[in-house]
Amino acid sequence: MLKIIAKAVFYLLFFSAIIIGLFVWNIYEKIQHKTQNLVDYKPKIATQIYDRNEKLIANIFQDHYRLYVPYDDIPPRVIEALVAIEDTVFFEHIGINFEAILRAILKDIKARKFAEGASTITQQLVKNTLLTRDKKIMRKIKEVLLAINIERKLTKEQILERYLNEIYFGNGFYGVKTAALGYFNKNLDELNLKEIAMLMGLPKAPSTYSPIKNYELSLSRANRVVNRMQTLGWITRNEYQRATKLKPKVYNNTLSNRKAPFISDEVLRNLSHIKDLKTGGYQIYTTVDITIQDMAQKSIKQGYDETIKRIQEQNLTKLKDGDKYDNNVTDLNGAMVVLENNTGEVLALVGGVDYKKSAFNRATQSKRQPGSAFKPFIYQYAINSGYSSVSKIPDISRTFEAKINGKRKLWKPQNYGKTNKGLISLEYALVHSRNLATINLVSEIGLQNLYNNMQEIGFTGVPMDLSITLGSFGISLLELSGVYTAFSNYGTMLEPILIKKIVDKKGNVQTFTNKQIPINDEAQAFLMIDIMKKVVDKGTGKKARVRGIEIAGKTGTSNNYVDALFCGFSPNIQAVVWYGRDTNKPIGHNESGGKVAAPVFKHFFEQYITYKPQDNREFRIPNEVKETYIDGKKVYFTNKSQIKYSNEEKILLDDDMIF
């Protein structure tokens, strides 16, 4: 009888084992393909943007913020701390720890619920990447089967590399490299033992042990890690004691870490053709200097505040006089572009006063009228055509017949202040931004000739009529900055460049260069630089003067004070400043480029020369430039632009000089 019972039990167990085996095999057959996701591990890695000095500007990512670190770059102490607290026999098991499983089953039975996980590092990796986190028997079976299969296909080192790059460390940080930079502002090889222990104590409960939310609890958990390492003999007693006393400084860094959002947005727009830009782990190196960017941003805000103050004072005056006024100044904004003269590299790009209020980039996404800031191009063409700084130009009023919307109308332009000066020098006309003189100059050199030249330079949308003299066409601030390098770079125009190189996750490097377009020879360009210096010294740009350094530039004010600009440069860098309303309404009465934008240029440059005291302070004079003196005043000329004047004719050269 006993033999029969034993036999029955044997067959029962045998067939049960077969059934269970078939059941498990069936499950394994259905899920084994999932392991390929870990074998061909391709995590979404954040892209990082740096300035020219390799300072981080922004982290760009999709869904998860993760930075990748290869196994060879992970410090041994990190591996030891992880294995000590999570899976002591990791290097010995086949993916599961039978002893730990048995211990967990007993605790689960005692607690009458799933209280103990008993998961190895391999199982944790499987659970976090291939399965859900539900505590169900079927999920646990799948976890075990996949863990064993993973151990067959990957080395222990490969498993650890995937684990430390995949696991969540709290506060939005995925991967150990991300967490080290996020919590401690350190690379992995810069961490001390206590910081390593704090990180390795996080995966079990990232929120509970967060050093930001629960600092003391995080320290306690880290001490357990360190204690475990000492118990295993992996650190000495002295190392343990030193580590337990440490209280590392923890930072609460934002995930994006965007120090210059207008820059990072522009980089994304420029590289929008890269499909995996936010997930491919690229390192993007820009031409920007984050310190100069901060200076520019502060200057734009300072100028904004000053302009708002003036507008409000104007409104109070109008109110007292019983006039109506528009008290809404929320649409007022500003922008600035700073370039390096001889490279075209963008050092700063400010698209607005406050990015949080408006992310619209007015330096690149908006086209505004340059007004009189366009005039130097007209005068440069005249100089190249044989005019000199003392060539005479009539500053007199004329009436023109124009065709507007198919109808013929009379156009009678005026100077600012509605005054005429008579016969004046070319230099005086530009220094004091005389509209009538400029219009008469264009009539002399030929509108068609000028228009063709502007097309050759690269201007688009320029009108084929005399309103060209007033800069009545749209251009972005970045584009305007580019064409202005024809002056600041002594005749060679440079395409503005924002991105220097991109390094992909495999280390492949893509570099970027910009176009260089010869417009003038150096000598001809210097003649214009000299006149633009006088714009700042004694003309409309006087408020842009900076003590101790030569500045050349030109103010710009579009019709009805809608746009206010100052485009200026030193021997090394150039800055273009703009203010206006997003609604294209007038800024305010008499709010010209010289009043609004020029002081901001000065504010910026005063900060800049403190930051870069080694920059050149005087403009270089090309060898081909010649000089003479007229009534004690130095005048430059070239073979192409000879000085031609008659002593019998009276020409207004300066406010205090007629010859």
In short:
This protein is an alpha+beta fold and 659 residues long. The chain is 40% helix and 15% strand. It has a domain at 68-255: Biosynthetic peptidoglycan transglycosylase-like (Penicillin binding protein transpeptidase fold, Orthogonal Bundle).
Structure commentary:
With 659 residues, the chain is an alpha+beta fold. The protein has a domain at 68-255: Biosynthetic peptidoglycan transglycosylase-like (Penicillin binding protein transpeptidase fold), CATH 1.10.3810.10. It is built from 21 helices and 22 strands. The strands form 8 sheets. The chain has a 5-stranded mixed β-sheet with strand order 2-1-5-13-14, with helices on one face. A hairpin with a 5-residue loop joins β13 and β14. α10 packs antiparallel against α11 (237-245).
Helix/strand layout:
Elements: H1 2-31, H2 36-39, E1 47-50, E2 56-60, E3 65-66, H3 76-86, H4 98-111, H5 121-129, H6 137-153, H7 156-166, E4 173-174, H8 176-184, H9 193-200, H10 215-231, H11 237-245, H12 261-270, E5 283-286, H13 290-320, E6 332-340, E7 346-350, H14 375-384, E8 392-395, E9 400-404, E10 407-411, E11 422-425, H15 426-431, H16 435-445, H17 447-457, H18 477-488, E12 492-494, E13 499-503, E14 509-511, E15 516-518, H19 522-538, E16 552-557, E17 563-569, E18 573-581, H20 593-596, H21 598-611, E19 626-630, E20 633-637, E21 652-654, E22 657-658
Parallel strand pairs: 1-5, 3-4
Antiparallel strand pairs: 1-2, 5-13, 6-7, 6-18, 8-11, 9-10, 12-15, 13-14, 16-17, 17-18, 19-20, 21-22
Regarding quaternary structure, how should these chains be classified? single chain
- CATH architecture group name of the domain at 68-255: Orthogonal Bundle
Q: How many strand units?
A: 22
Termini gap? 139 Å
- What is the CATH C-level name of the domain at 68-255? Mainly Alpha
